[in-house]
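Researcher: Please predict.
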Amino acid sequence: MGLPDDSNDPPPHTAAEDVQAVAVVPTEEALSVPLLDRNATENDLVEVISPAALPEGYTFDVIVNHKPFTITVPTGGVEEGQIFSLSLPSNNDSSASMNIPRGAWRDGLCSFCRHGCCHASLCIALFCPLLLLGQVMTRLRLDWLGNPMSRRTTTSKTFQTYFVFTVVYFTVEYFFQRVLINRLLDNENKNDMTDPMATIFYAFEQTLRLIWVLFSIVMVTKVRGHVRTAYHIPEHSCRGCEDCCCAIWCTCCTVAQLSRHTADYDTYNSQCCTATGLPERAPSIV
């Protein structure tokens, strides 16, 4: 009796073919994404669907078995939707970690509406960028001058310091403007437009404003350079002075981009009144 013909039968199924990782951030929806092999662990071979066109060396998280793994884009980069295979890296740190991309910015300089036009970080960036910068610096454990804090320092008060600066600046600015308006109105009624006190107040007000603008530009430049160095992000335009150019011409957009890059807003909501701009349960990035 001859053996049955198995030529039309499908090839044997292997465990590796069952493993598929979905490149997403660890939101509640992501944790419910069906995986063919929920028992995948470190060093298992997985197939990853690229969420976007990414350069080589770029890192992002994939969710396998309800657990995030940070993987690195292989040599040559990948295109959006491309499927590539790799082994899951060992992840000995069981604590939660923030998904911070390396090798490239999380999104573009003009992607400020990525999370909506009323997102807290966008609103702060538009109306008070120095406050948002203080939150970013607190996440990065930088002091108010943009220098890394010592490991012995357990808390950062950079946001609180910038909050005080902001309150004092706008209070003094309001005072000078009210005095100027009142004196100019009085002089107009008296047909006297040569008030020396009004000139002095105006000079003080303009000097204060200039100091505020210069301080903001210097700090945004310094923090952006720190983030690029820490996360190995190369310059693409105006090499050698890209950080300064972005700080001068696109202050609000630059601070908003720094905020999005150093926080996983797909997982953690933005908050206006916390030192880091994130919920207390959000993990540290440093």
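Model: Strands lie at 20-22, 45-49, 59-64, 67-72, 83-87.
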